[in-house]
Amino acid sequence: METNVLPRMNMADAPTGCCPKFDPTGWDGRHLHFEDKPFVRASTRALMHIPLNMGKVFTRVQKHIEEADAQDPEGYLVLSRDLSATEGEHLFAVTGHVPDEEMTTLSGDFMTRVFEGPYPKAKDWVHDMEIAARAAGHEAKRIFMFYTTCPKCAKAYGQNYVVGVAEI
User: pTM higher than 0.90 for the full model?
Assistant: First the structure.
């Protein structure tokens, strides 16, 4: 298993001019190993787990990542999870330091599963990730969701792929 490597993505395949089309090949059933992999950490406000300022936060963070030339040209990864009914945490994988943003790192082993469907199914997918981890002989520590496209692009592409990422 390679360290700090993500499945490749075709960043140029973005007919909407926004999010690239997501190809789930290479993401389902994948094991990822991170050692001090750098991430930008951002939080969003929510009401009953429904994000309120996600667009504003993601736009700011992405702008800073691009200005710092810290976007991996081979793909991207944003790990999201609810910390409570009123706060979400988002970890943006980067290649280096991003000024004006909170930096963190991740180390450990992670397993993935690809899901397709609307956002409200996320709580079911978290449960599915817990079961998948146990079936593989692990206990899921933290479970993140990687929403591969924004809602507008998911509608345009006709598919809403979400990758569950469980720390094991």
Answer: yes
